[in-house]
Design goal:
By secondary structure, the chain is α/β, with parallel strands linked by helices. The protein has 5 helices and 7 strands, in the order H-E-E-E-H-E-H-E-H-E-E-H.
């Protein structure tokens, strides 16, 4: 009866280990792909409060908040974000309303007097769907190239927002 080989020779094992290690080192040295979190700035068509369509553009760091008028946390957070926006003109603040009628969004905007944040209506809920929003407010942070670098689901205090802005620079 012939003996069946059960293992690899020590030199073959060493060669295979070297090949695997070399492959892992090569992968580690390759340039890293885009490091954004699950995507770039959504490219949905939104509507300004004056009724004109607009697409979001990169170019400077952006804080994008998806919200609804009936959301109590949104009613508290958006004016606080507006105040921080006044102190940080280098950052773009975008408030995207999720699917409510334009008249209701305008009324909310006018009652709060937003001047620094950009307020948009998203009647088709394209942004919320693209970002998989499942609650309000949902806050997303993008660098100047439009790459998502962070997100916070739920209310953010002004202090939390300022800490997040420091990470955008």
């Amino acid at each position: 009866m012939e003996k069946i080989p059960t293992g690899l020779s020590p030199s073959l094992r060493l060669g295979l280990v070297g090949l695997i290690v070399g492959g892992l080192v090569a992968l580690a040295l390759l340039p890293a792909p885009h490091r954004g979190l699950a995507g770039d700035l959504p490219q949905a068509t939104l509507v300004r409060l004056d009724g004109t369509p607009v697409r979001l553009q990169s170019g400077k760091p952006t804080v994008l908040t998806v919200w609804a008028t009936w959301c109590g946390y949104c009613q508290r957070q958006l004016p606080e974000f507006e105040a921080v926006a006044r102190a940080h003109p280098e950052v773009r603040f975008v408030f995207v309303n999720d699917g409510e009628p334009a008249a209701l969004v305008r009324q909310f905007h006018d009652a709060r007097g937003f001047t620094h944040a950009e307020v948009y209506q998203d009647a088709l809920r394209a942004v919320a769907q693209a970002l998989r929003v499942n609650g309000y407010p949902s806050n997303f942070f993008y660098n100047a190239r439009g790459e998502r670098v962070g997100e916070v689901r739920g209310y953010m205090s002004p202090e939390q927002l300022r800490a997040a802005l420091a990470q955008l620079r």
